[in-house]
Design goal:
single chain; Alkaline Phosphatase, subunit A; eight-stranded mixed sheet
């Protein structure tokens, strides 16, 4: 690997050129102040997130090949949540949960749709109201793209959504200035492709490195009197799986696990389309391994860039006064059960990383903990408000994860709800509940059920729903889903029984309110 895991920043010339461009774009980057900031009573808050990072692809999670030393460091110096989930595991509903601290019925997205224009409580605005200087860098995936939701500024990489002539992301604008004769899509892999390949351009032009570079610029130049809330949102490891060659080479010969193929999964083996954007299909062992190699290499590249950000925090003397949380919006099937992409109830899609590192002044708790309580994206906003010393609105569905480290806090939830409206095909439409040990799935098209004992069967290979000796457990978990869905009405539960939903129900009534113009 050489020095691939040693973080290094941009050159001074590149930094100046980058900052000048951001200023021209109206990003209002603060001027450089090389002196360390005075410690404040409230911690800075750093939200690091990636797109489509499956929960098992971390060294701390026990993956036999994943090289993620910087993410593992966050866990080692804080806590790793082994049962963290994305309730609605595609990009926009997950980001709606992150923005609002709400479950799907209450933020309105039951599947993939546009994030609402505004909500009563939104993370950037709530932290801004609490006295934080708020900045978002990278992928927000909001509508419209420049909707700030309370951020003082956003500096965007929305490369997969360059959809209108009216919008160009800040990364694409920077790329045009830095490399006017090159094509940012020269690698030639689509944004929902299973294929993997080495990034075709100089590594310094990669959006993953750009996102970290902008974050480092922010940290090096921060001179506001109060604390900051900084969201750094990488667009990878979401496809394209296009890491630099040195990271692809790192996984040559590595022990990359073959995909988990359930005894029930043969229905997914037939390829749904000849296009690279397929959602199901058995592509063969060699193709799947290459795809997984590119995915792991992309994860490691993100991890390396996070190491650069942590180094910048340390250089400014801010690390010990910053709450750091790392997560993702959802996972990536990468061939498990012959499935690709996301939007499924299975662990590779719905389970996500959740890592938390806290300052000593905020929390006196042992470090290196592994927490097994079920947590979810909705819990991040309450956690940040708690850390900021702000009131956590009772309207939020999430809870502060800091309570898990405090004696005398109310009991934590026993299980978490999951769901997704029709995605790719009408048979991928489901509701589920899990505590990280058991999972019950109700397939809405026809009422089929699955029950998995995740502790004994983490790959979800064996469906226990039809096994006589598991009927008591099946009824218990089915009853939990019934109790969760019954308040929604007879389209969901009728006469105390789950009702098949062959037609899509993409939005709850809350969505109409969230999309109203003011």
């Amino acid at each position: 690997m050489g020095n691939s895991s040693n973080p290094s920043g941009m050159s001074r010339r590149d930094w100046m050129r980058h900052t000048a461009l951001l200023l021209a774009l109206g990003a209002q980057t603060p001027l450089l102040n090389p002196t360390a900031l005075a410690q404040t009573s409230r911690p800075n808050i750093l939200l690091l997130m990636a797109d489509q990072h499956r929960g098992d692809t971390l060294g701390i999670a026990g993956h036999p090949a994943a090289y993620t030393p910087n993410l593992d460091r966050i866990a080692r110096e804080g806590a790793y949540f082994s049962h963290a989930y994305s309730t609605t595991p595609t990009c926009t509903p997950a980001r709606a949960a992150l923005l609002t601290g709400l479950q799907p019925w209450n933020h309105g997205l039951l599947g993939y749709s546009k994030v609402g224009l505004r909500y009563p409580v939104e993370m950037p605005q709530a932290l801004r109201d609490a006295g934080y200087y708020t900045t978002g860098i990278g992928k927000m995936h909001w509508h419209p793209q420049r909707n700030l939701h309370g951020f003082h500024q956003t500096i965007l990489d929305e490369s997969g959504r360059e959809a209108t002539p009216e919008f160009r992301s800040d990364y694409r604008a920077w790329f045009k200035s830095a490399a006017p004769n090159l094509d940012p899509d020269a690698t030639g892999i689509g944004f929902n492709s299973y294929r993997a390949g080495v990034y075709a351009l100089p590594e310094e032009l990669h959006p993953t490195r750009w996102t970290a570079g902008v974050a480092i610029n922010f940290l090096e130049s921060y001179n506001q009197p109060g604390p900051f809330f900084l969201k750094v949102s990488f667009a990878r490891p979401h496809s394209p799986y296009d890491p630099p060659k040195r990271w692809m080479d790192h996984y040559n010969g590595a022990h990359i696990p073959a995909p988990a193929i359930g005894e029930w999964a043969a229905i997914n083996a037939t390829r749904d389309t000849p296009e690279d954007t397929l959602w199901c299909g058995d592509l063969g062992a060699e193709t799947v391994r290459h795809s997984r190699q590119g995915y792991l290499a992309t994860v490691s590249f993100v991890d390396e860039q996070i190491g650069r950000i942590l180094a910048a925090l340390e250089a400014r003397g801010m690390l010990e006064n910053t709450l750091i949380l790392y997560t993702s919006d959802h996972g990536d099937m990468t061939g498990d059960h012959h499935l690709w992409r996301k939007g499924y109830p299975y662990e590779a899609s719905a389970r996500i990383p959740m890592l938390l590192r806290w300052p000593n002044a905020l929390l006196d708790a042992p470090r290196g903990q592994i927490r097994t309580e079920p947590v979810e994206i909705r819990d991040i906003l309450p956690t940040f408000l708690d850390a900021a010393g702000a009131t956590v609105p009772q309207s939020l569905d999430g809870r502060s994860m800091l309570d898990l480290f405090r004696s005398g806090a109310p009991a934590w939830r026993q299980w978490i709800d999951l769901e997704h409206d029709v995605c790719y095909d009408k048979r991928n439409h489901w509701s589920a509940v899990t505590d990280g040990n058991w999972k019950y799935i109700y397939h809405a098209q026809d009422g089929a059920e699955q029950l998995f004992h995740l502790t004994r069967d983490p790959g979800e290979l064996h469906n226990l729903a039809g096994k006589t000796r598991h009927q008591k457990t099946l009824k218990q978990w089915r009853a939990r889903l019934i109790a969760h869905l019954e308040p929604r009405g007879e389209h969901w539960v009728k006469n105390g029984k789950l009702v098949p939903r062959p037609n899509a129900i993409l939005h709850s009534p809350a969505y109409e309110t969230a999309m109203k113009e003011t």
